Amino acid sequence: MKLLVFRLHPDQDLKLAIDTFADEHALTSGFIITCVGSLKKAAIRLLDQSETSIYTGNFEILSLSGTYSRDGSHYHISLSDELGHAFGGHLMEGCQIDTTAEIVMGALPEVVFGREIDIETGSDELIIRKHRAKSDDE
Predict the structure, then answer these.
(1) What is the longest distance spanned by two Cα atoms in the chain?
(2) Whole-prediction pTM value?
């Protein structure tokens, strides 16, 4: 396993920044190990909803998990507000960092993550393939 650690700064978009970082580091099988920080704007798709819910205020990032592939990423986030009320859902573009986000990602060099429509669920689901090593002829 390969570990990558990075920090995001105020006003960066959490999802876009993670995906950009993973892409710039040529990850083929990324996953979030941990993330701590804060948001001033949260964009979350709640369970069984098609529209993104937008929240503004001061939010502590309690957890962030998910997978990254070049075909797309899938992250879930849990937040708490200033009263300690927790909520979360599917991380969408538009989450704006307040002070920081400290992120540790992992990558598995022996596999490649992808996304394909699953007939059973109708959604883009994670697929895992063995990483094909280049031959001397390539």
Answers:
(1) 61
(2) 0.91
